[in-house]
Specification:
The protein is α+β, with helices and mostly antiparallel strands. It contains 18 helices and 30 strands.
């Protein structure tokens, strides 16, 4: 087994640990003594509980007993012997510090647990025990008796988290969960209330903006907590360029974050050769003066070029930088920046690090150079320390710097006499043609956009459709039609399709069965039925109505587990003009104006196998990002460490938002849904376990997937 994914098991309890950089996921499972199959639908809850209750002998020692050997009351075994959850303790091996992961001593009542407080490059030991309700007469009764107690020998697993600063791939996620109870508890004293009128409905909202915190120490603490190493990693990447022997080649869509801009300015002052291609777009509008439209002598309206907001914000940030040396100021303003006009959107955000003209590393991902990217919405920065990959990015950057047109002139029949006139879609397909089939194991492939067709998007959909185990997919701007069609069909692995599975031979047996595929989809916001109806009507007008599908179609499938960004509502729907009473209610930073929650663009396919596929970068898996925008995507095949980093971070964000979605649904107008178990007291019967052992329930699939 890998050092970061070790499995230990008792007769009836097993633990499977998956370690990323700052997250460890523990998959728990129970089975009968004589049951070798962990996923058989015949493994009922009652069978799993047989032999799992714990009684005490006369000397107070724990002993296992079958249900039939325990005294009954009304035909039922004693309630205090019922398994009510798990106790999990963590020990940092280097420091020896031990921590209980059970909040307020309560049992963990689910079959996977995410530890989000680990540090990169550390070794941890986890101890897992079963918990029962404390017996009324026992050795636990003498002093301050706990309500629940851990029993039995602990099951121990040891893991080592990934160190992104030393490996070939360095993967960094920010917090991406600013709207959390933890953030409100830490920094709620700096909350500001606002009455807003969004979509015609007035309501109260609050923000906790870290940049407006008056206390410098608290401001830094809040920014550090939200960035969670992402901003620090980017600044460290830039700082590697020490002197004039280094070069930085950059692309930037949004470019307003002061710390990042100052880092590039400081590099210029160190003598580093810095070149930054940035998005410049706008439109010609009627010129006005004193609120009157300006006309020429012939009476025609005079038009002027007006930059879009992204362009104007970037220019203001560039102009705001000052230098002690006039020479450095001239270099910054005249020799550093290259405008990209001719694409639909210059949506890249990558940095190439070169030494003596030789590319050595590249930084890429979803992170724009803005405050909201680091301190608000979820984002990822991905370093590839590979000279060959860095060279591919440099070749692309050099073409992009010439500002060629993004798209070919379709059906024009024109030829290009000079290489500089070749449009980017042709250049990109020359650099990396559209693939056919899955990529080779242990490979990294780079794809650049725009492209001539959307075939690459179809290829992404094909890879999703090939999944035999799991899909973990983030979609900031909705789900495009090729991917929606895949999600609208329950995946059933072909019996002939073998996948090598690491961690446990039990998963190999499970993959050969049908109906075990589980696809996780994380959206930025809950889709609108009104928007769906408009899109469907538009498709019908174009004669494509029968082929159209979206969230409202594929959400019905049991193989799709879906969450979307949200904060805890704190009030019933329909009471919009009343502020929540709790000052600890969750609040965003207020830094994001368009995407509040999920801005990542990645997909992990069959994450827990020995040949996972990771697709990540700047593109939103859309037609526009494939055919029109300047974009870049990495396809990483077979790297289990990278898969673990993305998988664990995905599960952290998914669990955070899913629990809020369900609770908010239960508080919605006319809702008959019970409050989710995560937000109420401990359940002291076996009902909390039933979904995990019901083959028709998604939690059954999840337990099997993670076990």
């Amino acid at each position: 087994n890998n050092k970061d994914e070790i499995e230990e098991r008792e007769q009836r309890l097993s633990v499977h640990a998956i370690a990323g950089t700052r997250v460890v996921i523990l998959g728990l499972n129970l089975k009968r003594k004589d049951d070798e199959s962990d996923s058989s639908p015949s493994t009922t809850l009652s069978a799993m509980l047989s032999g799992l209750t714990v009684a005490e002998d006369a000397n107070g020692a724990d002993r296992a007993a079958t249900e039939s050997s325990l005294p009954e009351k009304n035909g039922q075994p004693p309630s205090h012997d019922m398994l009510v959850g798990f106790a999990i303790d963590r020990r940092d091996i280097s420091s020896g510090k031990s921590t209980s992961l059970n909040f307020d001593g309560r049992p963990i009542q689910k079959f996977h647990y995410g530890d989000y407080t680990v540090e990169p490059g550390h070794q941890y030991e986890y101890s897992v025990r079963r918990m029962i309700k404390a017996p009324s007469r026992s050795r636990y009764s003498f002093f301050s008796r706990p309500k629940y107690v851990a029993v039995g020998s602990p099951l121990v697993v040891t893991v080592t988290t990934e160190d992104p600063s030393t490996s070939k791939h360095g993967v960094y996620f920010n917090r991406g969960a600013a709207g959390s109870q933890a953030y409100a508890e830490k920094f709620g004293e700096f909350r500001k209330w606002h009455r807003v009128n969004k979509y015609g409905t007035p309501h109260w909202t609050s923000t906790i903006n870290p940049l407006t915190i008056p206390d410098p120490a608290k401001k830094k603490e809040a920014c550090t907590w939200l960035s969670r190493g992402l901003e620090e990693a980017l600044l460290e990447f830039i700082s590697q360029a020490k002197d004039s022997s280094w070069q930085l080649r950059v692309t930037a869509y949004e470019f307003t974050h002061k710390e990042v801009i100052h880092a590039f300015a400081a590099a210029v002052e160190r003598g580093v050769d810095v070149k930054i291609i940035h998005h410049v777009k706008g439109s010609h509008r009627p010129k006005t003066r004193y609120n009157d439209v300006v006309k020429d002598k012939d009476g025609k309206v005079v038009k002027e070029w007006v930059p879009d907001k992204t362009t104007s914000d970037t220019q203001r940030a560039i102009d705001a930088v000052g230098f002690q040396s006039l020479d450095h100021a001239r270099i910054w303003h005249h020799d550093t920046f290259i405008e990209r006009h001719t694409s639909s959107i210059m949506h890249n955000k990558f940095i190439i690090l070169l030494r003596d003209g030789k590319p050595v590393q590249v930084w890429t991902g979803s992170t724009n150079f803005t405050e909201s990217a680091f301190y608000g919405q979820s984002n990822v920065g991905h370093i590839v320390r590979d000279e060959g990959i860095a060279q591919q990015y440099l070749t692309y950057w050099n073409k992009l710097a010439l500002d060629p047109p993004g798209r070919s002139k379709r059906h024009s029949g024109s030829s290009h006499d000079e290489e500089d006139a070749v449009p980017m879609d042709e250049i990109n397909e020359q650099l990396q043609p559209d693939p056919a089939g899955a990529q080779p194991h242990d490979s990294i492939t780079v794809f650049f956009s725009p492209r001539k067709t959307s075939d690459l998007l179809d290829w992404y959909a094909d890879r999703m459709g090939d999944a035999t185990d799991s899909v973990h997919f983030t979609a900031a701007f909705g789900v495009s039609q090729p991917l929606a069609h895949v999600l609208n069909h329950d995946g059933k692995p072909s019996p002939s399709h073998e996948v090598g599975v690491r961690r446990s031979p039990r998963i190999a047996r499970r993959i050969k069965t049908d109906d075990k595929l589980l696809r996780y989809i994380l959206l930025d916001s809950q889709p609108s039925e009104h928007s769906s109806e408009k899109s469907r009507a538009s498709a019908e007008k174009k004669g494509r109505g029968n082929d159209y599908c979206d969230y409202f179609d594929f959400k019905k499938l049991n193989s799709n587990r879906i969450a979307y960004g949200a904060v805890l509502s704190g009030r019933k729907e329909g009471v919009e003009d009343v502020a929540p009473s709790s000052e600890r209610s969750e609040a965003l930073t207020g830094l994001s104006t368009f995407v509040d929650f999920v801005h990542t663009k990645f997909m992990v396919i069959d994450a827990l196998t020995d040949n996972p596929t990771i697709i990540t970068g700047s593109a939103n898996f859309s037609i526009a990002s494939t055919e029109q925008n300047d974009e870049n995507m990495l396809v990483i095949q077979g790297d289990t460490a990278v898969a673990d980093a993305y998988f664990t971070e995905f599960m952290r964000l998914f669990d955070h938002f899913y629990s809020r979605d369900k609770r908010n649904e239960s508080l919605g107008k006319g809702s008959k849904s019970p409050r989710p178990r995560a937000w109420i007291d401990v359940v002291e019967d076996d009902s909390w376990m039933k979904p995990y052992f019901d083959p028709s329930n998604q939690l059954f699939r999840e337990r099997v997937l993670l076990s």
